[in-house]
Each structure stands twice: as structure tokens, then as C-alpha cells.
Design a protein that fits this description.
heterodimer; A: about 75% helix; elongated; disordered N terminus; B: about 325 residues; MetI-like fold; 2 domains; 13 helices; about 80% helix; about 0% strand
């Protein structure tokens, strides 16, 4: 009995690993997804190594005498209208965007996962109340919701992250709920219930791990859209407070100089595109790897 | 069908109420005293106190919310703190611009997105297919206000072909419409393509081909009709996204629409306008979703029986 049990567990672990391997194998074959992974790895490396690559002082300190220098040897991306080095601002801006995007979306996906799995697992009235609440949140585009939260709380990194996490909860809870509904009636859950496993354990140990695929895909894509949202809010002056370097606020600053110094708006834009594209490619690749049938 | 529409409108009611409640409560956290904003910094504390009493600002937020809803039912959404004009008339004045912008983008999405998606699917893996997919990827990866800045840079500042800001002639709407519709265009191309690819593999398409129907007719008559459902969803979804995204585009191009009104109101802490604009957008989105669902039943009559059947069960 005990032997059979343990070998069973080993078998299961083995299967799990090979499933992960299979997903990785399919992901690896997808060239575009690998490009996305390389881009993301590069950006994360830049964000982490920002103090080594550049100097925060250069990114925020104004130096009027050195203003509006086109790209040159000393300032490879040039300087803005306050004489700040654009390269340094881009590098430190990567920190802000990636950090806010990842933290905001992680918080949102965790809360959404809990709400969605509780709603899906218990069903009935709990499900009804929670999902009607989510319907209300869904009826507001995340941009609108984020804008109203930031409008009330004020600009700043923390408030921006709060706004992001609230704005995306509804999507995540919906996704998890529908996966839970499809998992709930499977035999292994029935078996767990029959063994007298507590609900909390069933939700966290059995249901959420099996519903994690779609959640992962959605999280990756949401971080991408969150980066756009962050830059949009900062562009409107509602996101990151100056002088903290952020790509969107760099664009807002550069707007008035656009005619004569186009590089001021082109460079931050390219930084945003690069990071968003990397995440989108990974997200699409993950979706295809998790469910090969879905591929066009 | 009419009963279904009625039911859907009834479901909309609590959602709109919920949205107004959430937005009202969130914006209630906005720092700053409205009475002080209305009267300006030079007003005496005494007059601010009197105005607070008059506006009922000393009541609890819940009470104020119910008063707001009660007034809103009669069409009174309060007055702007800044201009003193009723919120509803401010919104009405801005509506045509936002509507023109959204319509312009919609038209662009449909007349470019659907044909490109169809050609991409019909000539899968061709150069054109790769090209359209790459541009779709690029378009979904850029913030639309940045695309707007780039278009402005090239078409207005460098080439001097189109006006950059303002809303005086139809030319003023070209760049903003392209900008606002860019994301939707990308999703439209992708969706049309994948939806068409799925249909093209079906047996009845092979049948049509084997009985000698021309390729053009196969694609436009036999395939497109059946691929239309997901395409309509995208149209509806984009309309919702555009109303939200319009805030930024309208501000970027200085178009006097509802979105730029809302952003301006947020900056000046003009809360009644902000709440009014957001509720207005939410209502527009809900109505759009309903319209999409109704169009569904025309495109796919099978859904009609499902919808009516559901009604009976309910």
C-alpha cells in the first residue's frame, strides 16, 4: 500500500516535470517567443544593472548649459531640454516601468485568482455576488478605472501600482473562474473531496496550480498593457511624479521640442515598444505552448 | 427579441449604478475642498463654510451619493466646480467631437482591417501575410499617443499635410482617428485572419471550391459570412476601448471631446465633471455591448433561439 502510494507520487511528479518540459520544448521552438524572452531578459538586466551602467544623478540633475544636445559620444542618446542625459533616463525608466508593471500585475493576478477560484469553487450565491461585482469593474475599461483612482489618490509610484492592481483584478478573476469551473468536476478534485481535504487546501493545492496556465499567459500580456498604461498616465501627468525618470513623462516633456528635436520623442517611444513587444511575444508564445491547438 | 433587449437594459441598470457608486466613492477621496475650489483662494473661511453647508458637503458620502443618484435620474448631474455650468450640458457640447473621432476610427478599422485580414488568411505565409502580422504586432506594442506624436511629427510638422491639433475641419480628424484606431486595427487584422483561416479549412469551403466556384467568391461569399462573428466582437470591444483611450488621444491632439474634458477636469479637481464623464462612457460601452449582441443574432440566427430559450428558462 505504502509502496504503491509513493511510486504513484513519483509518477505524478515525473509527469508534472515532463509536462513542464513539453511546454518549454514547444515554447523553445517558437522563434518569436524566444526573441521576446531575450528582449525581456535584456531589459531586466538593464533595469537591475542601472546604477552600474549609468548614474541616477545624471538622469535627474538639470544642467541647462548642456541642454538639447543631439546624440553624441558623451550622451549617446543626447540630452533633453533640462540638460539631463537621455540614456540614463531611459535606463532608470526601465526600472520604473518594469517594476510598477510586474508588481501591479502580480498583486492583481493573486487577488483575482483568489476571487475567481472562490467564486468558481463554491458557486451559487457567492459566485453570483462576486461575479456581479467583477462585471461592474469589467464595464469600466482599465484605463478609465486607473485614471479615476490616480485622480483621487494623486500621482506617484505607489498610487500608480494600486491603480494598476485594482484595474486588472476583474480580468484575472474571470479567467481563473472559468478554468476552475472546468477543473472542479474532474475526478481528482472529487477524490480530494472524498479524502476529506479542506476547501482551502483544494483551492490552493489542487485547483489553482491546474489553472495557472491561462493565468500566466494573461499576466504576461497584462504586464505589457500595464507598461503602456503607466506611460499613458505619466504622459498625461497623472502617473509618475517628476523628476523620477519615466518613459511616458519623458514623452510629455519632449512634446514641445518635437519639431526640432525629434529624437526626444523617438527614443523613449522605442524603449516602450521594445519592452511591450517582448512581453507580447512571450505571452503569445506561452499561449501557443500551453495549448498548441489554439495556434492560428 | 424585444423582451430580450428590455431584459438586457434592466441588467444594465445595476451595473451603471455600481459603476457610479464605485467612481463616486473613489473620487470622494480626492483631496481638496470643493467649496474652496469654487470660491477660489481669496474667499473667507466663513463663506467657504456657508457654501459647504449649502452644497451638503458635510453629509456622509453615502448620503451624498444617494442624493446624486436621485438628481441624476432627473438628468441633473451637478454643476462643474470651475465653469458653474451643468455637467450634462458640458458633456452634450463635447459629445459630437468624441463621436466623430470614434466613428472615424471605426471606419478605418473596418475598411482596412477586414480586407487585410482576409488577404492575409487567403495567402497565408506570403510576404503580405508576414508584413501585415508584423505591423499588427508593432501596432499593439506601441502606446497610441506615441503613434499620434509620430504621425503629427511627420504629417503636420515635417510635411505640413494635415493639421496637428484642433477640431475645425474633417481633416483635423484624420490623424487622431488613425491613432485611436491603430490598436483596434491590429486586433482586427489578427482576428479576421485567424477566424478566416479556421473557416477556410472547413469541408463546405472545399465543396464550394470543388464545384468550381471562383476563389474570390469562395472567400467573400462562403468564408467571410461564417467568419464574421468574432470580427463583430472585435468591433464592439474596440468601440469600448476607444472610448477609454479617447481620453489620451483627445488630449494629445487637443480635440474638445469628452475624454479631454475628463482629463482637464481631473487636473483641475472638477469632480462632478469627472464622475459625469466616466458614467457617460460606461453607459456608452454597455449600450455598445448590447448592440453587438443584437447584431450577433442577425449574423447567426442560431443564437436567436438560444437567447430566446434562455429567456424562457429565466
Amino acid at each position: 500500500m505504502t509502496i504503491g502510494n509513493s511510486s504513484n507520487i513519483n509518477e505524478r511528479k515525473g509527469k508534472k516535470r515532463s509536462q513542464f518540459k513539453a511546454i518549454w520544448f514547444r515554447f523553445k521552438k517558437n522563434k518569436l517567443a524566444m526573441v521576446g524572452l531575450v528582449i525581456l531578459a535584456f531589459l531586466i538586466a538593464v533595469a537591475i544593472a542601472a546604477p552600474v551602467i549609468s548614474d541616477y544623478e545624471v538622469a535627474i540633475k538639470q544642467n541647462i548649459r548642456n541642454r538639447l544636445q543631439p546624440p553624441n559620444k558623451e550622451n549617446i542618446f543626447g540630452t533633453d531640454q533640462y540638460g539631463r542625459d537621455i540614456f540614463a533616463r531611459i535606463v532608470f525608466g526601465a526600472r520604473v516601468s518594469l517594476f510598477a508593471g510586474i508588481v501591479g500585475i502580480s498583486t492583481s493576478s493573486i487577488i483575482g485568482a483568489v476571487i475567481g477560484s472562490v467564486a468558481g469553487y463554491y458557486g451559487g450565491r457567492v459566485d453570483n455576488i462576486l461575479m456581479r461585482l467583477m462585471d461592474i469593474l469589467m464595464a469600466l475599461p482599465s484605463m478609465l478605472l486607473a485614471i479615476s483612482i490616480v485622480a483621487a489618490l494623486g500621482a506617484g509610484l505607489t498610487n500608480l501600482i494600486i491603480a494598476l492592481s485594482v484595474s486588472y483584478i476583474a480580468q484575472f478573476s474571470r479567467i481563473i473562474r472559468s478554468s476552475v469551473l472546468s477543473i472542479k468536476n474532474q475526478e481528482f478534485i472529487e477524490a480530494a473531496v472524498a479524502c476529506g481535504t479542506r476547501d482551502r487546501r483544494i483551492i490552493f493545492k489542487h485547483i489553482i496550480p491546474n489553472a495557472i496556465g491561462p493565468l500566466l499567459v494573461q499576466s504576461t500580456l497584462s504586464i505589457a498593457s500595464a507598461i503602456i498604461l503607466i506611460s499613458s498616465l505619466s504622459f498625461l501627468g497623472l502617473g509618475i511624479k517628476p523628476p523620477m525618470p519615466e518613459w511616458g513623462s519623458m514623452l510629455a516633456d519632449a512634446r514641445s521640442q518635437m519639431r526640432n528635436y525629434p529624437y526626444l520623442v523617438i527614443i523613449p517611444g522605442l524603449a516602450i515598444i521594445l519592452s511591450v513587444m517582448g512581453l507580447n511575444l512571450i505571452g503569445d508564445g506561452l499561449r501557443d505552448a500551453l495549448d498548441p491547438r489554439l495556434k492560428d | 427579441m424585444l423582451r430580450y433587449i428590455g431584459q438586457r437594459l434592466l441588467i444594465m441598470l445595476p451595473i451603471i449604478l455600481g459603476i457610479s457608486f464605485i467612481v463616486f466613492m473613489i473620487l470622494d477621496l480626492t483631496p481638496g475642498d470643493p467649496a474652496r475650489i469654487i470660491l477660489g483662494d481669496s474667499a473667507t473661511d466663513e463663506s467657504v463654510r456657508v457654501l459647504r453647508e449649502e452644497m451638503g458637503l458635510n453629509d456622509h458620502a453615502i448620503i451624498r451619493y444617494f442624493r446624486y443618484v436621485k438628481n441624476a435620474i432627473t438628468g441633473d448631474f451637478g454643476k462643474s466646480y470651475r465653469s458653474g455650468l451643468p455637467v450634462l450640458s458640458e458633456l452634450k457640447a463635447r459629445m459630437p467631437t468624441s463621436f466623430k473621432l470614434a466613428t472615424g476610427s471605426m471606419i478605418m478599422i473596418i475598411i482596412i482591417g477586414i480586407p487585410v485580414g482576409i488577404i492575409s488568411a487567403a495567402k497565408q505565409y506570403s510576404l503580405l501575410d508576414t508584413l501585415s502580422l508584423t505591423s499588427a504586432l508593432l501596432l499593439t506594442s506601441m502606446p497610441n499617443f506615441w503613434l499620434g506624436l509620430m504621425l503629427m511629427l511627420f504629417f503636420s510638422l515635417k510635411l505640413d499635410l494635415l493639421p496637428a491639433t484642433g477640431a475645425y475641419t474633417w481633416q483635423h480628424f484624420i490623424l487622431p482617428s488613425i491613432t485611436l484606431g491603430a490598436f483596434g486595427l491590429a486586433t482586427m487584422i489578427r482576428m479576421t485572419r485567424s477566424s478566416m483561416l479556421e473557416v477556410i479549412r472547413q469541408d463546405y469551403i472545399r465543396t464550394a471550391r470543388s464545384k468550381g466556384v471562383g476563389e474570390f467568391k469562395v472567400i467573400t461569399r462562403h468564408a467571410l459570412k461564417n467568419a464574421l462573428l468574432p470580427i463583430i466582437t472585435i468591433v464592439g470591444m474596440n468601440f469600448a476601448l476607444m472610448l477609454g483611450g479617447g481620453m489620451i488621444i483627445e488630449s494629445t491632439f487637443a480635440l474638445p471631446g469628452i475624454g479631454s474634458l475628463a482629463i482637464q477636469a481631473i487636473r483641475t479637481k472638477d469632480t462632478p465633471i469627472v464622475i459625469g464623464a466616466i458614467i457617460f462612457i460606461a453607459i456608452a460601452i454597455s449600450v455598445m455591448n448590447l448592440i453587438v449582441d443584437i447584431i450577433y443574432t442577425f449574423v447567426d440566427p442560431r443564437l436567436k433561439t438560444i437567447i430566446t430559450a434562455e429567456n424562457v428558462v429565466k
